[in-house]
C-alpha cells in the first residue's frame, strides 16, 4: 500500500478509520431522512394538503434528485467538518485527493470511458442472465428525467461516491484487513449501493462489482481519489452518451 503523505513537519497525514465510516453512514441516513421530510413539507406548501409525490417513477425522479443532492451536500459537509475536528488536517489531504497532472487527468477520463465500453461488453456477454427490465429503467421513461439523471450521474454521484468509498471506506478496510480484502469489500459494497436499482440481479451486480474493483484498484495504486472521481465521471458520461444516441436523444427509451 502506498505510504501516507508526509507533511513538511514529518508527520504522516491521518486516514479515516471504520468508526469514521460508520459515523458518516449514520449522518448520511439522517441527512436523507431530514431532507426528505423538508422536501415533503415544501411539496405540501406548494401543492396543498392533498399533494402526493408523483406515482410515476420518472416524475418522482425530478422531485427526489434535489432531495438527494441536499443530503449529499450535508453528508460531505459533515465529512469535511468531522475530519478537521478530529484530525486537524484538511479534508482533501485526509482522503488523499491528490489531483493528477493535466495529462494524467485526461488519461483518467479516457480510462473511465474504456471501462464503460468494457462493462457494456460484459453486459452483452451476460445478456441471457440479465433481467428483461430493471427498476432503474423506469426512471428514464421521459426525456426530462433522463437528462436530470444524466446530469446528476456525471456531475454529482462520482464525486460523492468516490469521496466515501475510495476516500473513507477503502483506506479504513485496507488498514485493518489488507489491500486485497479492502478492494474486494469496497467493490462489493459499492455494487450493493445500487442493488435496489438492479433488482438484486446477480449479473448486473457482478458487472458493477468489477467496475468498483477497478476504481478501488486505481485508488490503491495511485493514492489519488481525484483520479477515481475522473474515471467514474468518464465512465458515467460514456454510458449516458451511448444511451443518449441509442434512444434518439432520450425520446425512445423503449429501446433500452
Write a structural description.
- The chain has helices at residues 18-47, 57-87, 91-94, 102-125, 135-138, 143-155, 157-177, 179-193, 202-222, 225-246.
- The chain is an all-alpha fold and 256 residues long.
- The protein has one domain.
- The longest helix is centred in the N-terminal third of the chain and has 31 residues, at 57-87.
Features:
256 residues
The secondary structure category is mainly alpha
- Reading the helices and strands in chain order gives HHHHHHHHHH
Give the strand tally: 0
End-to-end separation = 41 Å
Question: What portion of the residues fall into strands of 2 or more residues?
Answer: under 5%
- Radius of gyration of CA atoms, rounded to a whole number: 19 Å
Secondary-structure map with pairings?
Layout: H1 18-47, H2 57-87, H3 91-94, H4 102-125, H5 135-138, H6 143-155, H7 157-177, H8 179-193, H9 202-222, H10 225-246
Short overview:
The chain is an all-alpha fold and 256 residues long.
Amino acid at each position: 500500500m502506498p505510504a501516507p503523505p508526509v507533511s513538511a513537519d514529518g508527520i504522516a497525514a491521518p486516514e479515516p478509520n471504520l468508526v469514521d465510516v460508520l459515523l458518516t453512514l449514520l449522518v448520511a441516513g439522517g441527512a436523507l431522512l431530514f431532507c426528505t421530510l423538508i422536501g415533503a413539507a415544501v411539496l405540501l406548501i406548494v401543492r396543498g394538503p392533498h399533494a402526493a409525490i408523483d406515482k410515476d417513477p420518472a416524475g418522482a425522479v425530478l422531485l427526489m434528485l434535489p432531495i438527494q443532492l441536499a443530503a449529499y451536500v450535508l453528508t460531505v459537509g459533515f465529512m469535511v467538518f468531522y475530519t478537521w475536528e478530529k484530525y486537524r488536517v484538511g479534508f482533501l489531504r485526509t482522503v488523499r485527493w491528490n489531483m493528477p497532472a493535466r495529462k494524467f487527468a485526461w488519461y483518467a477520463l479516457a480510462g473511465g470511458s474504456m471501462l464503460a465500453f468494457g462493462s457494456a461488453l460484459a453486459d452483452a456477454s451476460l445478456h441471457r442472465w440479465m433481467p428483461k427490465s430493471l427498476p432503474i429503467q423506469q426512471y428514464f421513461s421521459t426525456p426530462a428525467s433522463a437528462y436530470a439523471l444524466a446530469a446528476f450521474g456525471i456531475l454529482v454521484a462520482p464525486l460523492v461516491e468516490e469521496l466515501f468509498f475510495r476516500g473513507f471506506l477503502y483506506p479504513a478496510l485496507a488498514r485493518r484487513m489488507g489491500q486485497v480484502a479492502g478492494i474486494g469489500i469496497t467493490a462489493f459494497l459499492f455494487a450493493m449501493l445500487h442493488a435496489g436499482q438492479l433488482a438484486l440481479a446477480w449479473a448486473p451486480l457482478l458487472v458493477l462489482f468489477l467496475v468498483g474493483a477497478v476504481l478501488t484498484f486505481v485508488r490503491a495504486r495511485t493514492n489519488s481519489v481525484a483520479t477515481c472521481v475522473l474515471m467514474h465521471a468518464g465512465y458515467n458520461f460514456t454510458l449516458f452518451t451511448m444511451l443518449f444516441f441509442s434512444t434518439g436523444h432520450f425520446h425512445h427509451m423503449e429501446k433500452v
